[in-house]
Give the backbone structure.
Amino acid sequence: MKAAKIGLFFGSDEGNTESISHRIARRLGEDIVDIHDIGEVTQLEFMDYDKFILGIPTWDFGQIQSDWEDFWEDLENIDFSGKQYCIKKGIEIYYNSRGHRFSSSEIRSRLKN
């Protein structure tokens, strides 16, 4: 059985999150992970995946990376229902798995804080 594709979306000003994204793809399998720079995508790319990873670096006192800031309103309109995801924002990690699911509104609420 072929594994489902995972969309890995990152933003990076200094290259750290991009580097980690490529390491994750190599570790999970480059044949199943598609890497996307959030500065170059639209909401439509999220529709291609049921599983995804978001790499959202933070600066200073927790401000999100500039490309993610530009994409933020679009992110708020994406329906995460039924999706499996892992979100890395700064030092915090939000994920869903059996018995631990965040709703779309919970994700947005947690990411805003």
Remarks:
- The chain has one domain: 6-101.
- The longest helix spans residues 16-28.
- The domain at 6-101 is CATH 3.40.50.360 (Rossmann fold).
- The CA atoms of residues 84 and 98 lie 10 Å apart.
